[in-house]
Fold this sequence. Notes:
Number of helices: 2
Structural class: alpha+beta
Radius of gyration: 12 Å
Low-confidence stretches: none
Order of helices and strands: EHHEEEE
Mean pLDDT: 94
Oligomer: single chain
Amino acid sequence: xxxxxxxxxxxxxxxxxxxxxxxxxxxxxxxxxxxxxxxxxxxxxxxxxxxxxxxxxxxxxxxxxxxxxxxxxxxxxxxxxxxxxx
Length: 86
């Protein structure tokens, strides 16, 4: 089972998302502890270690550290805006 770490900027982004959508995102992140590569996961182009999952109109971008069994959530945001920094 993987441990989940959510970076500070991702937590700030999550706090700004409406509660209904935020609940779905939190549930999806919790499921990453059981399966770090669920159905629908995509590897980010141009990055060797970044993955993303879709949760409605939002995206969760994260790294997987298999050796440490940890998942680090780097960014959470609306699909139109989340990719700008990557």
